[in-house]
Amino acid sequence: MIELMSGMKEHLEIELNYRKNELSSCKSDIRGKAEEMNKQLERKREIEDTIENLNNSIEELEEYRQYKLSKSSETVK
Predict the structure, then answer these.
(1) What does each C-alpha distance from 55 to 16, 58, 62 come to in angstroms?
(2) What angle do CA 56, 61, 67 make, to 5 degrees?
(3) CA distance 65 to 52
(4) Which residue, 23, 3, 5, is CA-closest to 13?
(5) Distance between CA atoms of 6 and 20, rounded to whole angstroms?
(6) Rounded distance, CA 70 to CA 58, Å?
(7) Does the global pTM surpass 0.70?
């Protein structure tokens, strides 16, 4: 009986170690994916900032163009 329980204990310890290794591997995979997602999110924010800056520049150029047009029409009068 003791031998049977000892064998079961050994089997359960092996199974536990296997599960711990699986869990560790999963944690590592999740960390890797989270880091990749953070990089992608950072890149997305950089792109959004660039788009916003470009839109602001376009607006400023349009305002300047309108100003120049109004000045040139005043000069023609």
Answers:
(1) 58, 5, 10
(2) 130
(3) 20
(4) 5
(5) 21
(6) 18
(7) no
